[in-house]
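User: Just a sanity check before I run the rest of the batch. Below are the structure tokens for the first item. I only need the designed sequence back.
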């Protein structure tokens, strides 16, 4: 299906106004931004004459472009999302349905229905599935919360990895085998797995996954591992897995950053450091939020929640142009960096299809209006979409 450019009428005046205001205010400092906006404008002009490009086509020779999807999208019940996913993405990650609490809700009770549908949907549409995830301290089934004995945890661990990974061997392109096992200082996070199975549980998870799923790639996934201390911990982890003779194919940097605070230098250092280990580097849950969180650090810990009034939700009605511009520039700079390392970066996955779906509307504070992705609440491409596309022109 050809893709029309619905947002163009909105984007053109926006860009013109922005350029005019910038020139009036501070011409010299803002030259790079003006040049970027002019390039976006020229290229969106070109696009009006044709159909808008799709991310997966534009970056076809560079890396996979993924999105996180949920039940209505897997079941193709969300027509607008469905159309956009097929146009724009060649990789998907299930946002929730393959997590332990859903796929094994009771001891040895498996619920494979949605994951089977996901695999069929992806095969039909030539989309690669990154299955998320096998071992994570969060979103565990209720029966795990009462588990006391190391023996039971060990049984669960072996059975869960073996049953789930073997069912989808080769049917999913890849697995996030272990998710978020590190603390900010690079040490191992306290969890039921660390407590009951000891330091080697991560190597063992990869060993079991390798046996159960020899035809899917195996990854470690975490947030903030671009930060120096946590990065060091991640490097040690990968080296430990490799030294044990166990396969690890790549590492996923989640990429939940704020649009005005993307740690570009740390990201670049991390791509280099992880690539030096001989593994793929991926950006697996990318979103550049525009709302402040109640704390200074950049955690993406799902259990770190807070309450906040209207002051914490300043863009409930709409996103100001100035913020939208900052986001467009940050996305462009980020993709520029990904392209620089396209030999090492194998996939960039957004954590959601459009702003409406984003988990950042409800985390860490429930009921806010965030705008972290490339498509707005009506599935229209945002200025950030055009700025990302434009760097390839
Ligand atoms: C989030 C989902 O987006 C939410 O829908 C869910 O309620 C909680 O989990 N790191 C991860 C993802 O690895 O699985 C998390 O996803 C976001 C942080």
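Assistant: Here's the designed sequence for the first item:
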């Amino acid at each position: 299906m050809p893709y029309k450019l619905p947002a163009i009428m909105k984007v053109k005046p926006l860009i013109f106004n922005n350029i005019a205001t910038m020139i009036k205010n501070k011409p010299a400092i803002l030259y790079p931004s003006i040049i970027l906006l002019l390039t976006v404008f020229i290229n969106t002009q070109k696009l009006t004459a044709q159909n808008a490009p799709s991310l997966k086509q534009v970056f076809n020779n560079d890396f996979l472009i993924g999105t996180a999807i949920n039940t209505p999208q897997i079941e193709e019940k969300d027509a607008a999302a469905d159309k956009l996913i097929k146009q724009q993405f060649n990789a998907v990650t299930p946002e929730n349905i393959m997590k332990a609490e859903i796929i094994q809700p009771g001891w040895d009770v498996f619920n494979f229905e949605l994951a089977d549908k996901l695999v069929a949907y992806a095969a039909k549409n030539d989309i690669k599935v990154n299955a998320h995830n096998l071992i994570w301290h969060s979103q565990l089934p209720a029966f795990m919360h009462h588990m006391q004995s190391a023996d039971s945890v060990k049984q669960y661990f072996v059975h869960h990895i073996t049953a789930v990974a073997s069912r989808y061997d080769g049917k999913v392109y890849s697995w996030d085998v272990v998710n978020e096992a590190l603390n900010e200082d690079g040490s191992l996070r306290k969890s039921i797995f660390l407590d009951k199975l000891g330091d080697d549980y991560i190597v063992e998870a990869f060993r079991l996954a390798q046996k159960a799923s020899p035809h899917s790639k195996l990854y470690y996934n975490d947030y903030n591992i671009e930060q120096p201390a946590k990065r060091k911990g991640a490097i040690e982890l990968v080296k430990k897995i490799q030294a044990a003779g166990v396969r690890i194919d790549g590492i996923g940097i989640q990429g939940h950053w704020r649009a005005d605070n993307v740690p570009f230098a740390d990201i670049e250092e991390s791509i280099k450091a992880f690539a030096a280990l001989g593994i793929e580097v991926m950006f697996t849950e990318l979103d550049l939020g525009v709302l402040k969180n109640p704390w200074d650090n950049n955690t993406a810990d799902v259990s770190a929640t807070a309450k906040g009034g209207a002051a914490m939700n300043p863009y409930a009605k709409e996103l100001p142009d100035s913020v939208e511009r900052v986001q467009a520039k940050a996305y462009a700079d980020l993709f520029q960096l990904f392209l620089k390392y396209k030999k090492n970066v194998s996939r960039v996955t957004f954590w959601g299809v459009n702003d409406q779906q984003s988990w950042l509307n409800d985390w860490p504070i429930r009921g806010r209006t965030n705008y972290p992705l490339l498509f707005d609440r009506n599935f229209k491409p945002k200025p950030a979409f055009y700025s990302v596309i434009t760097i390839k022109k």
